């Protein structure tokens, strides 16, 4: 029996550790008929595409293309931006802002010329700042440009809580919001385990006291630094997280995911991109939605927004076309 042909095209800008892993995760999930890796490093991008194609017999049918020409991205359904300077040990995501802002503008404007109808997903760090840069550079309708946000951070949180409570991560319903970085927060007031509010969960003698919340948040926010210190880059988890976002979009799933988008008054915040739950479908992103969070979570979210705003100001980006805070 001949397998039904898949449709769709994914273009990944940047063939480094993150970009190639995003392509690998997309290949294994069978997300598109064609996956393009675009990078100005000709030898690298050719080698990555060859390596992926060598494994084609073990994955759903797809064509993998490696190219140093942005024209290879033509007519993509979704463009994933991973190109940029790598975060070094001891360096924060926001330290990368200046150099990666210039790279983001240059690369995405080139790709937009050949893929004007695509969705644009920004992964390069600092994700929230560069999502704003991409929105400015691309000038596309609302919802078509967004960042990977705290989807990965939320997965890290669910894993951490599941280990403490000895339940499956999928049974933990908790969210990281705000910056994808040091100022991110956990929306503790709406967290639950199997429908039971986290604050009152106490099954099999296992529970999490409010006094432990900050310790957990700090550990989740610092996970990337630990990985970078040990092996130079994060790749597997972010590749899976981006595949999850792409799947929601390409398969029109209308899923709630904490991606990075412009706030236009939600939670009393405007003029910055940060993460809160949004609906992701084939048209892009809708939201963010406003959850019934308590005053502590609200204050934390606003403080995280202020951190991102300060970086936008430092880059001269308050005139983004979004209202200022």
């Amino acid at each position: 029996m001949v397998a039904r042909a898949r449709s769709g095209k994914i273009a990944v800008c940047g063939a480094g550790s993150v970009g190639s892993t995003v392509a690998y995760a997309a290949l294994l999930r069978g997300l598109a008929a064609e996956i393009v890796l675009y990078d100005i490093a000709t030898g690298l991008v050719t080698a990555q595409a060859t390596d992926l194609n060598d494994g084609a017999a073990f994955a759903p049918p797809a064509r993998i293309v490696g190219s140093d020409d942005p024209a290879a991205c033509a007519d993509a359904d979704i463009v994933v931006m991973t190109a940029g300077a790598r975060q070094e040990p001891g360096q924060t995501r926001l330290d990368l802002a200046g150099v990666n802002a210039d790279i983001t503008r240059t690369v995405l404007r080139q790709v937009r010329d050949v893929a004007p109808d695509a969705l644009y997903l920004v992964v390069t760090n600092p994700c929230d700042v560069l999502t704003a840069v991409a929105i400015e550079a691309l000038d596309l309708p609302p919802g078509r440009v967004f960042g990977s946000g705290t989807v990965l951070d939320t997965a890290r949180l669910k894993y951490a809580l599941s280990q403490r409570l000895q339940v499956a991560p999928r049974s933990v319903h908790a969210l990281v919001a705000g910056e994808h970085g040091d100022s991110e927060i956990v929306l503790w007031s709406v967290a639950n385990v199997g429908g039971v509010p986290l604050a009152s969960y106490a099954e099999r003698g296992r529970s999490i006291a409010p006094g432990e919340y900050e310790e957990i948040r700090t550990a989740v926010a610092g996970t990337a630094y630990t990985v970078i210190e040990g092996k130079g880059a994060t790749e597997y988890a972010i590749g899976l997280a981006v595949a999850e976002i792409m799947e929601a979009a390409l398969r029109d799933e209308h899923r709630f995911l904490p991606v990075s988008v412009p706030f236009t008054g939600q939670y009393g915040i405007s003029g910055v991109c940060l993460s809160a739950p949004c609906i992701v479908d084939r048209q892009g992103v809708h939201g963010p939605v406003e959850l019934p969070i308590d005053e502590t979570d609200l204050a934390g979210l606003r403080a995280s927004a202020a951190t991102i705003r300060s970086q936008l100001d430092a880059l001269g980006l308050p005139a983004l076309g979004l209202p200022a805070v």
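The chain has nine helices and 16 strands. Residues 1-5 have pLDDT under 50 and may be disordered.
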